[in-house]
Design goal:
The chain has helices at 44-49, 73-82, 96-116, 135-143, 189-199, 215-220, 237-248, 269-284, 286-300, and strands at 2-6, 9-13, 33-38, 54-58, 64-65, 125-128, 148-151, 164-166, 174-180, 200-211, 233-234, 252-263, 319-328. It has a domain at 108-267 and 306-328: Vaccinia Virus protein VP39 (Rossmann fold). It is α/β, with parallel strands linked by helices. It contains 9 helices and 13 strands. 32% of the residues lie in helices and 23% in strands. The strands form 3 sheets. The chain has a 7-stranded mixed β-sheet, sandwiched between helices. It has a 4-stranded antiparallel β-sheet with strand order 3-4-5-11.
Amino acid sequence: MRSLVINGRIFCDIISIMGACRMQCVSCGGKEFSKITDYIYKERLFKQMFPGLRIMKCRNCGLCQVCHQEIEKSKLDYYYENIYRDKAKIGIKLSSGDVSRFRARGKALVGLAKKYLPESVKTPAVFELGAGYGFNLAEFKKAYRDCSLFTDEIDKTIEYPPEVNIASPDKGQYDVVLLSHVLEHLKDPKEYIYTVLKGLKKDGIMIVETPNDITEVLIHRGNQPYYHEPHITFFDKDSISYFFKINFSDSLMMLRVSTAGDVLRITSGTLAAAKRRLRDLISCFPAVFKTLINIKSLLFGSRAVEKIDYTNDSDEGNREFLRVVLRKIS
């Protein structure tokens, strides 16, 4: 046994290696895997809590994942409650471009809801798991003025407007459930889908969005963030389709599987490494680079943020986001 101290809290952990881990696919239960790449961490705390991760591909269903049996749920919950934004600083410095992209994604999800919700639903009850800063829910409020909004966001540092209610996914009667960039974070994504189904009305819809982590992107990263942290499951179009078909065909009808956003670009290993070194350098001297950016803005002006449209859903599997729309049938 070994002890790990994070922010004053002691975790006891059994030292294990991939060879000793009885790895089982979180989608199909398969036990045969091929290694894709070593896990690229962003900061030391996640690495301390979950050291030595490697991304493996299930030989049966093709889903890429770390060994989930090595991920202790209490640690993972603690990470998201106390470290994800407060210490790791992930997703907290939002530029005007970031805000535009989040809003554009929210508008695209609203568009899917309008397309697939039953016509009789005029004021939907919308639940979003881990709503973050609430961009998706804000777009639903714009589109459906009298809708009811719910989330179970565990980050207590985020303050929501009064129209957003804190609730449980399995306790309400929801017309729409949003899982936007959530499944890739969960220790047991199947278990959570089963939980969500308890609160989703019959004929209600579930809208899922995740990164499109094709194998080449996992290895070279392309135009994606250069680290894998804190994702532990990595879907592509085929593996996410299989995930829902093999596990939920009795209760969910798959209405659409698509990709959206920018076309993925695959960067060579050398260029990806250069990008990593540059970002590491920027993180070491943030004040210097911020000053240089401010000087550039003063001399040349700031370029206006371009209008972003993420409603470009495609049947091809080569865009940055995966989207799945499902209807509850039983």
